[in-house]
Amino acid sequence: MKRKRITAKKLKIGIAAAFMIFGFSSVSAQQQVSLQEAIKQALQNKAEAKKAALQIKKAEYKIDEARAGALPQISGTAGLTYNPVIQQSLLEFGGQRITAQLGQPWSSSAVVSLQQAIFDQRVFTGLKAAKSTREFYVLNSQLTNEQIIENVATAYYQVFVQEENLKTVEASYSNTEKVRNVIKSLVDNGLAKSIDLDRTNVQLTNIGSNRQQLINSVELSKNSLKFYMGVPIDTDIELEEKTIEPRPELIASNVNLDDRLEIKVKNKNRELLQYNKKATEAYLYPTVSLQANYGWAGTGKKFPLTNGLNNGVLWSDYSAIGLNINVPIFTGGATKAKIQQAEIDIQDLDLDIQNTQLNLSLEYKNAISNMENAIINIQSMKDNVDLAERVQKNTQSNYQYGLATLTEVLDAENALTQAKQNYSNALLDYKQAEIKLIKAKGELNTLQNPS
């Protein structure tokens, strides 16, 4: 009988030792992906980034188009005409009337014309607007990149925390499985009750179910990350192993909301609307242009392209230079109405800018509060993990000496697993709050480079 007690005691010590072993084997052979690498691939692959780059390129061509209006416009024309019936005209000479045929059956001409704008306010305004349009698309591209970075970073840490939860549950499953095997050995030797084995199997099944759910969650989170990275969904990725450390210094730094890209884009858009108003006002200004042409014409009874004066075809050149001035006098008030509409568009955008400034200010204040709460919550959850670990160790120690039941041991293991998962979720909440704060400060681009 004494020998049996010693054996049972050794087996209990073995159970306690089994609880102390935490193992999680990673068999992944995939290449590890850092947050910076994920962002880099997203900016290279995502359609939104590519489309923003195309808009910048398109703006370059708009500048070329606007510049063309200030450059000489040269064109060439050529024509060949045959008149089978030539109209006759009635002429009077010294009181006598005669009929005459004015014209020849064949006529041909080749003309080169030049037109140069000397003063046209619309052309000059259009050139400035085109350059401003390019700057607008550059800012818009940066804003698009910020949105991509935010999506990638959020998805990245979602995967990170899900994997941490999976590691915790894997360790808990491994520990409980070892305990189950020890208890089964005890039951087989008549040293433990079968109900203890049943309780442990139920616990193991519950943990296994939770583990499978987390495996699915990790896979779904990785698919979301791959989508935001712009890589094929069947690509194998593995996150770089890295710990999450709170950065309370982010809260203390100052921020200028006018540096936010959302404000810069709207201010640039306002500049474009002002150019639109000036372009409309330009219709009230006179325009001055220079026109010049030089031509070569041939007329006669025969086909002019292969005949000359000897065959009755006269070829001669001609040229003209002119200065055109167009002064608008009265348009019925249409131009004035268009100017007023352009002014209303500017006023409407001013209201949007004010509202955006308020929203960004609210976003920044909320980001500060969420960041502060997240840091407090992380510390609280970390302390809770430490407490749960002490409770687990004490419960295991008490179980060795018969001062605690198996149920209490399993409950302590559950509490530790839950505490670790709560801590991981607190880390995710913190990272999401950190990303929001960095965005509110207009510094999302800093996530592209390791700190």
Q: How many strand elements?
A: 8
Q: Count structural domains.
A: 2
Q: From the coordinates shown, what is the CATH architecture of the largest domain?
A: Up-down Bundle
First-to-last CA distance: 65 Å
Structural class: alpha+beta
Q: Average pLDDT value?
A: 86
Number of helices: 9
Order of helices and strands: HEHHEEEEHHEHHEEHH
Radius of gyration, in Å, reads: 42 Å
Poorly predicted regions are 1-29
CATH fold node name of the largest domain: Outer membrane efflux proteins (OEP)
What is the name of the CATH class of the largest domain?
Mainly Alpha
Percent of residues in helices comes to 55-70%
Strand order of the largest sheet: 2-5-7-8
The description of the largest β-sheet is: 4 strands, antiparallel
Describe the structure.
There is one protein chain. The chain has helices spanning 2-19, 35-45, 47-68, 121-188, 194-229, 249-252, 261-281, 334-400, 406-440; strands at residues 32-33, 73-82, 88-93, 96-101, 106-119, 238-239, 287-300, 313-326. By secondary structure, the chain is of the alpha+beta class. The protein has two domains: 2-71 and 120-285 and 328-448, Outer membrane efflux proteins (OEP) (Up-down Bundle), CATH 1.20.1600; 72-119 and 287-327. The strands form three sheets. Strands 2-5-7-8 form a four-stranded antiparallel sheet, with no helix packed on it. Helix 4 packs antiparallel against helix 9 and helix 8 packs antiparallel against helix 9 (406-440). Residues 1-29 have low confidence and may be disordered. One of its GO terms (molecular function) is porin activity.
